[in-house]
Amino acid sequence: MPHTVAAQIPVRTIPPEQSPDLVYFSSASENTRRFVEKLERPALRIPLHPRREGVIRLTQPYVLLVPSYGGGDPRKAVPPQVRRHLSIPENRRLLRGVMTSGNTNFGVDYGIAGRIIAERLHVPLLYRFELLGTSRDVAVVREGLVKFWEGQRGE
């Protein structure tokens, strides 16, 4: 029987052999998903509709990629699905870093969701990129993730 969280939302535990080291959230616009696909590495999407699709519980360390919401309002910056994902203790414990997309029009609040998560959960903010990202962003993130995980594993 699957575990549940508040309001009887099913929780699907991702076994270690199926746990990628990149987890992301993408809204219905699919912008973040398109960026992740360009990285050409295994990744797992946080469900868009957790009440219907359930939530995931991870079993391996991961980096989170999240868009910033709320038009620069810090109280609305972290998508509710990401807040729910991080409400699961194992998901918070296994988080090793965060990357974020945003809009530079919001000035100091550009990519604020990543900064909020990094500060609250004491993990590094690894990278910020604007909107869909550029081909340079893709290359930097690809290489950066390889180096980050090599450093984490002491290789």
UniProtKB/TrEMBL annotation:
InterPro entries membership: Flavoprotein-like_sf, RNR_Ib_NrdI_bac, RNR_NrdI
Superkingdom of the source species: Bacteria
Pfam families: Flavodoxin_NdrI
Coiled-coil segments: none
SUPFAM superfamilies registered for this protein in UniProt: Flavoproteins (SSF52218)
Gene3D superfamilies: 3.40.50.360
A GO term for molecular function: FMN binding
Function: Probably involved in ribonucleotide reductase function.
HAMAP family per UniProt: NrdI (MF_00128)
Record-stated family: Belongs to the NrdI family.
Entry protein name: Protein NrdI
Species annotation: Corynebacterium uropygiale
Lineage of producing organism: Bacteria, Bacillati, Actinomycetota, Actinomycetes, Mycobacteriales
